[in-house]
Amino acid sequence: MTHRGAWNSRWSFVLATTGSAIGLGNIWKLPYMIGVNGGSAFVLIYILSILCVGIPLLMTEIMLGRRVQKNPIDAMKSLAKESSRSNNWKYVGGMGMLTGVMILCFYSVIGGWVLSYISTAVQEGFTGITAEQSSANFGDLLASPLTLLFWHTLFMIITMGVVSRGVTSGLEKANNFLIPALFIILFILLGYSMSVGDMQTSFDFMFKPDFSKISPITALAALGHAFFSLSIGMGSVMVYGSYLKKDVSISRTSIYIAIADTLLGLLVGLAIYALVFANHLDPSEGPGLIFQTLPIAFGQMPWGNFFGILFFILVAFAASTSAISLVEPTIAWIVENTRIGRQKACLGLGLFIWLIGLSVLLSFNVWQDVKLIFGLGIFDTLDKLTSTIMLPFGGLLMAIFAGYFMKKRHSKDELDLTAKTYNLWRMANNIIAPIAICSVFLYLLNIV
Ligand code: TRP
Prior knowledge:
Elements: H1 10-21, H2 24-36, H3 40-68, H4 72-82, H5 90-123, H6 131-142, H7 145-164, H8 167-196, H9 199-207, H10 216-230, H11 236-242, H12 250-278, H13 289-300, H14 304-337, H15 342-362, H16 378-405, H17 408-415, H18 419-447
Bound molecules: tryptophan.
């Protein structure tokens, strides 16, 4: 018998899952993806994806995890057995775990960038920094494998250190403070951006619909990012749901999480683009966007160094609470199925991810020209493969299982909704989400 943790209260599950959802995806990735993918067209499809696919599948995933209270592979196995279905459904859980591990290989490198910015903010501050200097600083960081290695290693140690203690205990307290604090500092940043930046252009860039910019790539990127941002499609949420007691409303919780997650991401975007346009920077800068623009703001605003330090510390925390949820499914599986203890499992898996992470880190400098598939470098390959293919595919399979293979009475029982809302979920899960995911895949295949 293995001991399984459990959340102390309904609130801690909401916080932990929100903590998993809110991370680099909102603060680092969404802003630059908006710029790279043509602004408002991307935002529109992203919001639609959250509403039509993200929220119903978030409910599905929590429901699957809570029903059988197991890690993704064993959960899918038991769920399939309970409904007399093939044992092969366990591979959905297996693919999810692999996806999480692959994401962490690059997530940790970016987490390292954030840590290095804390150190810069503390040691030198950003006072009076110009746009050129800020870009040059970021360029210097990327060009230095040893510095990147140091911070990537530190990020991995922090993440695996927390996971090795068991996820349910420490995370509750951290999140309780972290999420409100992140919102507060974001409002401060937004206020500053509004006073000196070009908020009107930023707003138009993000929200004035421009259908001419919608392309298959935009659609795929936006859909994939909805999965990435909500942490769905791989079993993070399934595992958190498995620690959840039965007295929680899955639907309400899912809506809260989706609203907090989406709002935070879009607000960061608005603040960043107001600065981008005011400083004549390039919106399609790519992964370095926030690291190049935010120091300019912190360098000019009153109390800027203090806010800069605080901001990067909070982002680092947010990143680590997300990183934890990327490996927890795999760790839970190892602990519950082998004689390997939690600590050893964390050490082994941590080392493996750290090692693959090295190749990601080198892909920003010495291995810049190494291309894997479709001419993409190592970082891009891992990122695109996981976000745009593996997560939506994993989500699709979970939706199909929950909708067509699981006994209806089981999902009804677990979701505990009124007849009307249950039917709404069923329509979204069985029809809308699968069609949306498949059509985006097909849309892409047609063109490529
Ligand atoms: N959602 C997190 C972020 O935005 C990243 C993350 C955590 C994730 N767990 C996940 C992404 C599971 C996909 C699947 O930073």
